[in-house]
Each structure stands twice: as C-alpha cells, then as structure tokens.
Amino acid sequence: MEIWRACTAVERREGKASGAWVFRGTRVPVRALFENLEDGATVDEFLEWFPGVTRAQVGAVLSYAVDSLADVVAK
User: Fold this and answer.
1) What letter does residue 25 receive in the DSSP assignment?
2) Number of C-alpha atoms within 13 angstroms, CB side, residue 42?
3) Which of 70, 74, 2, 65 is nearest to 37 (CA)?
4) What phi and psi, each to the nearest 5 degrees, are found at residue 14?
C-alpha cells in the first residue's frame, strides 16, 4: 500500500522487515499497531510492548489513517 508514502512517521526499505511499512527508525510494522488495537489493546499498551515506537509516531499514523479514510469517503 503506497498510501503511507506521505506519512513522515513511517518508512519502508527493501530488506528491512520484508519491505513492510514500519515506524521510522524501528523494525515495528505499522500493521502491528492496527492489529493490536483491533484485538483490544490500548495505545499505552502498544507503546509498552514496542518501546522503540513513540507516542508522536502513533498519533501521526492514526491521524494520517483517519485523514486518508476521509479522503476516500469524500470521493
């Protein structure tokens, strides 16, 4: 999914985490955030489980996802 390209909190590099979108400076896939939230975890729990990820990164990813969905719905 190329939609993450404009989100500065994430990155994707060939050979790093199998090319998945990860939180910048980590090997934690963005997908892990959404999977954990879907399973009932809180943001605080996610941050505890993945200490390399910052609250600002999580906030940026969630805001970006909401904005991206709003753009799709508006079309």
Assistant:
1) T
2) 3
3) 65
4) -60, 130
Instruction: Please state the pTM of the whole predicted model.
Output: 0.86
Q: Are 33 and 25 in contact (CB under 8 A)?
A: no
What is d(CA 35, CA 11) in angstroms, rounded to the nearest whole number? Answer: 18
Tell whether the model's pLDDT for residue 74 goes beyond 90: no
For each of the domains in the chain, give its residue range(s) and CATH number, in order of start.
2-74 (1.10.10.10)
Rounded to an integer, what distance in angstroms lies between the CA atom of residue 51 and that of residue 26? 10
Q: Which residues contact 45 (CB under 8 A, 6 or more apart)?
A: 36
Encoded amino acid at 59, one letter: G
C-alpha dihedral sign at 22, 10, 6, 69: positive
